[in-house]
User: Fold these one by one.
Assistant:
Number 1:
Amino acid sequence: MDADTIIEFAEIEAPDEHARSAAIELHGKLIKPAGSLGKLEELGVWIAACQGQSPPRPFTRPRVVVFAADHGIAAKGVSAYPREVTGQLVGSLLTGGAAINVLAASAGASVRVVDIAVDTEAPATRSIGEFKVRRGSGSIDTEDALTDEEVRAAIRAGMKIADAEVDGGADLLIAGDLGIGNSTPASVLVAALTGSEPVAVVGRGSGIDDDAWMRKAVAVRDGLRRARRVLADPILLVRTAGGADIAAIAGFLAQAAVRKTPVILDGLVAGAAALIAEELAPGARQWWVAGQRGGEPAHALLLDHLDLEPVLDLDIRLGEGTGAVAALPLLFMATRILAEMSTHDQAGVSGPLTPAPTS
């Protein structure tokens, strides 16, 4: 095999245990009962471990990268929207009018859009098409989503984008997705990697009616039959039953872990890519936190498989990174608690009469 086609990730190092222990110890000294801030304490400890220091540094450049792509399976009527909406929504993101633009601005994050496989050559996408693999993808119920060359190009694109963002100063990353029909290949991948049946993973996606749900269930069933034949190889799996966006996000998430940069995971599509990323780079999930639990049944399955407990439960299933960005302010808070809250000694506040339980 040509060296250019080989996909290799550096060994994933675990977040720093000394910083984790120091953050836990610091929480025990702050002017509050131990554990009384619940999940905020857990998040702060995780951030300290990821940064390798306690107290952790406040985030200065959280970055959302939205990977846009079309999917051939959309032609089978699995979505409530026509596939040309993908390109139209890319235009909205570029002008700042999409949901992720509004939420990211509110949460203090910036947004980048990448056209990885949108089925258009519209001028609005040319400036963001440096890593474009193809226009759309194959219909995964009857054909592969990508060629071998394309899937590897997409994974490498995700890796390069992660490197560029970290090198540019990003200290927290979020991968968003945008594409009509993308929950169908994502559901196939989740079913394949969690050993689930189609009926357990098929959700309402974009708000489909019962007829479209049945079409989607058939598409997932047929895609899953094809996916199970290549289950042992994550690259073949995403080539067969995924898409360029999912492949690129997988590369992005795995490389973020290589670069020791924390990630907030979004919903179903990014989560399916996370399953692939963990297969490609075992241990990468230690660098991710789940932003929220969405409304798709497959999302709950993949979070359980990755052993990730979501920060929020808001039933957000839009994609674009919206569910992850909704959790971002809580990570800001968790970081500042450790960095700015007074200890008992500093404030002259008496501690508890008895030590807090250790388990």
Note: The first strand starts at residue 62 and ends at 69.
Number 2:
Amino acid sequence: MLGLLLLIGGADGLVKGATRLAERVGVPSLVIGLTVVAFGTSAPELAVSIRAALTGQREMAMANVVGSNIFNVLFILGLSAVIIPLTISRQLIRQDVPIMILTTALVLSMAIDGQLSRWNSAALVVLLIGYTVFLFAQGKRAAHVKTTASSSEAVTETIKKNAPAWHSLLWLAIGLSCLIFGANVLVDSAVNIARVFEISEAVIGLTILAIGTSLPEVVTSLVASLRGQRDIAVGNVVGSNTFNLLAVLGISGLVSEQGLTGSLQLVQQDFPIMLAVALLCLPLFFTGASLSRIEGGLFLSLYLLYSTFLIGVTTHAHWLSSLKLFIFYLCIPLTVLTVTGTLVNDLRKRRQWPGTNKGPDDDT
């Protein structure tokens, strides 16, 4: 309960500080969501993976990232969209989601043999630095040409006059501290409870650990959605996934003397699922530049199915073969049909009503 309260309060402070900071320095809120907020809320994954790498649990470090990325897209975006349909900015569709997909494919190619060497990890860190510099430079350029509504200008001017910069930085610092500490308390408590009820270590690592370290993203995206900062809500997830792949795997792989390792199941099963989930974002985001409640429900259903499958594999459940048949012969075809249907419907609307083909920031 204490961990949950810290997460909620920390997320509110983080979104508030990030929003004010974005308006003050002239950086679009999407860029703040993709960098400051996304990197901050991924700090638990970084801490857990580094600790795992230093203590020789190299597979746990990699599994934590894979599980967290799948959870971020399917559960967090799904739940956020079910509560409030999310509008997706053109920058996310054209740039940041493709970057997330390419980064996922790159890491999969590096770890295809079950090994992520220190050289591979160093390359990921270099890409992280370049990606972060590129985002901030792009955001500053866009700020000079972006025109804002008079109401937004009035709000910005009020913030600049009445709120010193250190207020925004203080909100960010307090929010991040509460998020990180709250996540650690919640994860430790959940693991202890699981052990009391004699749940296996494998299930704990693949479910509780991955979900627990992603709780800051859950609360931050939900709070951002409710506060109307939907760019931060979506950008937080996309940025967190890219950060997990580049920074968490990169840094934890560097601190480990032998790099990171992944089991055959992780490489052949969970890595491809992570890539498929990333690819799923592109067509659904593209349709109407939004994520509807129905699509959000699809994401949540897929995560529930993945979790059930994961538990079945880990515990060697007798119903696993039936679940595999259900997935391959019903769930996958239905998902393909849903995505195809939304694409066809969107293309039909674009042809009938060309004037409605604008994304949320086409006018800016």
Note: The chain has a mean pLDDT of 78.
Number 3:
Amino acid sequence: MPIAAVLAAGMLLAPPANAAAGPATLPASQYTLSANYHQFDAVDAALVSTLGTAAVHTVMDNANHDRTGLPSSFAPAGLSTGFQFDSADNSDCANYPQGITTSRDAVGTADSGNYDGHQLVAVSWYTKASCTGASERSRITLVDWDATYPNKYRKILLVQPTGTAAAPDFQDIPIHAGGVSWYGDYLYVADTGHGMRVFDMRKILKTNTGGTADQIGHQSGSTYYAHNYAYVLPQVGTITASTTSGTNLAWSSISLDRVSKSIVMAEYTCASGCTDYPNRAPRAVRFPFAAGATTFAATTTASQALQLPWYKLNGVASHNGRWWFNSSGDKKLYYWTSATGPATHTWVGSGESLSYWEDSANADLLWSLQEGAGSRNVFAVTQATYGA
């Protein structure tokens, strides 16, 4: 992103202006999910037996990248805190950050939102072949967000189990990873044309960091490579979406709503003229978890569906009846409730996913991030700044 654009994105933001129209209600019964949390049980068990697992606290004890502070030029209204990745990750033309979630999503506000002793921010990434090619793999980054620990983060490769229980293996997952939500022990990663892939944070595998950067999976004996990554997170299941509306959902972004115990998703679409994205009005849909669980039932029907008047949406969040939608193309953050109607706020450029940070002692926050190489700010603003 040019420096002028970075500075423009960092200027103090203007007050909200009422939008002309808000979302329209769609029949929620048209949208369903089918959940399979045991798709790879046999191969996953064999991989765990062969490679062994590393708990999240062990991964963070071995974190090997330093996060840095936000630049002083970055100052959106309501800015509370944030960071940048190290200089190599901040400028990397092959890897792009997309989704964001936190351990507050995973466990709530208890024990300051610690998961396995750490307060964490998790970011999903996808990798382009040779910086300009198609997606070839995806990963997450776990970032320590607790003053007790160093300002460190660690990368974990996302993999899909292959082979058999007798000969277990894994391969890359070449998805956009446009959104990520963490609930209990499960990590849900958006898979644009299908739904979500499910990962279990208790099953992070230890791999050999040798070999070459292009090697992935079983080599010989008990040696497994993963593009020189020390840790991989194998997929445990799949959440498949279906609809009777006639138009399949595009899972561009997702976010967790702890109040209604649901995941919300939104679509990136264009009003017209796009070749890589749908040219139609986007939708946002809410899917509830099974009662008393951090998993979806085998079949889940949506509890809310909306048709949206806004386009190029890269981020969605919902909490206690309130909705936020981030348009990277229009640099707007839209707010809506059925009671107050819509409001429009100026937002940062190159904006991606949103995550609601609930806090029992301080102001609740909205976390977000920018994907543009050179200005990958990961930041939190007070949610009240972006209301009606």
Note: The two ends are 30 Å apart (CA to CA).
Number 4:
Amino acid sequence: MGKQRVLSGVQPTGNLHLGNYLGAIRNWVEIQDQYENFFCVVDLHAITVPHNPATLAADTYKIAALYLACGIDLSHSSIFVQSHVSAHSELTWLLNCITPLNWLQDMIQFKEKAVKQGENVGVGLLDYPVLMAADILLYQADKVPVGEDQKQHLELTRDIVNRFNHQFAKKAPVLKLPDPLIRKEGARVMSLTDGTRKMSKSDPSELSRINVLDSPEEITKKIKRCKTDLVRGLTFDDSERPECHNLLTLYTLLAGKTKEEVAVECADMGWGQFKPLLTETAINALKPIQEKYQEVMADKGYLESVLRDGREKAETIANQTLMQVKAALGFSVPL
């Protein structure tokens, strides 16, 4: 038996922030030797909301370089760009045709983002979960590392698998049912300006997030200005103090300590003592990533070779799955 396969990706919409790193990529790094991994930069997803075409390509390469800088090991993992494998778009169309519209209209993320976009909301935003399903199913992934906010999309993927196999592959399933890999601690890193909201690239305030490539000066300013309360003594899991819980969680993850250790260490601290501690810890934790990122970006040929190799490996598997899906649907074979 070979290793189980994992598929995941991040959008190239600007810089990675601590929510992306602690909630996703660091988890990929920690478990990558246990699986056969395919990590893509999901640039097709990036255009489901208004985007800047002048920076899309550069942002795509930046995220790929950050994958390597954060510790993705090419002996266990392949890195590629989603749009470089055309099977993603083709399988999305095929799955669209068997996915009931009401399944997509019930997606919480669509409802939330559609409200923000108003009359300008595009079909791509509604269809985002089907594209995500195609991403996963092309590689017959066994496991998908997802945050809590993406869990509903993975459930939709499983519904699509069951529907497809029941209608078109009754004798032998064509598509594999994927399972979620959800990290309990840090799976949902919250905003620095509002501890009840997820840290997000779409937040208009830069002060709401710490980016992986932020300078020490920027990190210091953001933590100094982050929202806190007037209570002395820092505790986890107090519903009245969401910012306190979030900042302690950040410190726990960045310092590599247990929740119990941090609870004891910070029990009697005030914010004036804790914020400098969190600042120093964040700067030290991100420094090696930033140094590795600069090294990768300085060698464009190396980064391009990584993405080329990743695309070739991805295409081999993706095209095979696509052929099986098209055969099950009854398409003719190209002459």
Note: Residues 106 and 126 are 10 Å apart (CA to CA).
